[in-house]
Backbone:
C-alpha cells in the first residue's frame, strides 16, 4: 500500500499562532489562580485541543451576551477575528484583550474599512454564518453584502451606479470564488476585486485535489464544524469517490473495511487538526496494511 500524506496537512500559521497565544497566557498566569482566561468561542475547531485548554482553566465564552457580563480577566480573540463593536465592548468593561486574530483576517478588516471610505460598497464572498465573515461585516459601517452561491451573485441587489469592492473569506474555495466574481462582473459594475483567500488554504486545497486524483481512497481529517475541512472534503470527494471524513483515529477504524482493498491512500487534514492526530492516523494506515 502506498500512503501519501499532504505536506500542507494540519495547523496553519494563524491557528498555530492563536493556540500558542492561549498556552502562553496559561503559562504567564499559572501562579495567579484569580486571573481568569477566556476565549471568545472555541480557539480552534478541534474538540481535543479545546478540552485540553479547558482542563488547564481556560473558559470558552459562547456569545456576545455572555461576554457582556464579564467584569475582569483576559479575553482571547481567536484567529477568525471579531467585529469592531466587540473590541469596544471589551475595552469598556475593562477586560484585557489578547488579539489572536490571524494577520491575514485583520488585513481584510483594514481593506473593507479603507475601501468603504473610498466610496465602495463591500461584497464579501463567503458564508454569512461563519464567524470570520460576521467579523468582517462588523468592520463595514454601511453594511456589507455576503454572496455564497450562484443565486446570491445573480440576485445581487446593489444598485449598478455604485462601485463595489469584493473580498473573500480566507478559507473559501478558489474556483467557486472565481465563478461568483465572473457572475457579478458581468452585471456591469465598476468592480474592484481583492482575492483575500489565504495562500495556506489555496495550497492545501490544491495539494489535496492533486493527491485525491491519484489515489484509490482519500482520508480527510478534521473537526466536523471546521469550514476549511468541509471544503477540503468536498474537493477531495469530487476527485476521489472513496473519500472519508474523520475526526479522530476511532472514526477511521470504522472505515477500515472499505480501505483494505485499496492500493493507494491519500491523507490530508484541515487547518485546525493537530499533528498528533495526523500522525496517529498515518501510522495506523501504514501498520494495518
Ligand atoms: Fe490565517 Fe490562513 Fe490560517 S487566514 S487562520 S493562516 S487559513
Residues:
Amino acid at each position: 500500500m502506498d500512503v501519501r500524506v499532504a505536506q500542507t496537512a494540519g495547523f496553519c500559521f494563524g491557528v498555530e499562532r492563536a493556540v500558542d497565544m492561549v498556552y502562553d497566557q496559561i503559562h504567564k498566569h499559572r501562579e495567579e489562580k484569580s486571573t481568569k482566561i477566556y476565549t471568545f468561542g472555541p480557539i480552534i475547531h478541534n474538540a481535543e485541543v479545546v478540552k485540553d485548554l479547558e482542563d488547564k482553566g481556560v473558559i470558552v465564552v459562547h456569545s456576545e451576551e455572555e461576554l457582556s457580563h464579564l467584569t475582569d480577566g483576559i479575553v482571547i480573540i481567536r484567529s477568525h477575528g471579531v467585529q469592531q463593536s466587540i473590541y469596544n465592548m471589551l475595552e469598556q468593561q475593562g477586560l484585557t484583550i489578547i488579539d489572536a486574530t490571524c494577520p491575514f483576517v485583520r488585513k481584510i478588516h483594514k481593506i473593507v474599512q479603507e475601501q468603504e471610505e473610498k466610496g465602495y460598497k463591500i461584497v464579501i464572498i463567503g458564508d454569512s454564518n461563519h464567524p470570520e465573515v460576521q467579523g468582517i461585516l462588523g468592520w463595514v459601517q454601511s453594511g456589507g453584502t455576503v454572496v455564497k452561491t450562484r443565486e446570491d451573485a445573480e440576485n445581487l441587489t446593489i444598485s449598478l451606479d455604485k462601485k463595489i469592492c469584493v473580498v473573500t473569506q480566507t478559507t473559501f474555495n478558489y474556483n467557486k470564488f472565481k465563478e461568483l466574481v465572473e457572475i457579478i462582473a458581468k452585471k456591469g459594475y465598476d468592480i474592484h476585486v481583492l482575492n483575500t483567500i489565504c495562500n495556506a488554504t489555496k495550497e492545501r486545497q490544491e495539494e489535496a485535489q492533486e493527491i485525491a486524483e491519484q489515489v484509490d481512497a482519500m482520508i480527510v481529517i478534521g473537526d466536523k464544524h471546521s469550514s476549511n475541512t468541509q471544503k477540503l472534503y468536498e474537493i477531495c470527494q469530487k476527485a476521489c469517490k472513496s473519500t472519508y471524513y474523520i475526526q479522530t483515529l476511532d472514526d477511521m477504524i470504522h472505515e477500515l473495511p472499505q480501505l483494505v482493498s485499496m492500493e493507494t491512500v491519500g491523507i490530508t487534514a484541515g487547518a485546525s487538526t493537530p499533528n498528533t492526530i495526523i500522525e496517529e492516523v498515518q501510522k495506523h494506515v501504514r501498520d494495518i496494511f
Remarks:
- The longest strand covers residues 163-168.
- The chain has a mean pLDDT of 93.
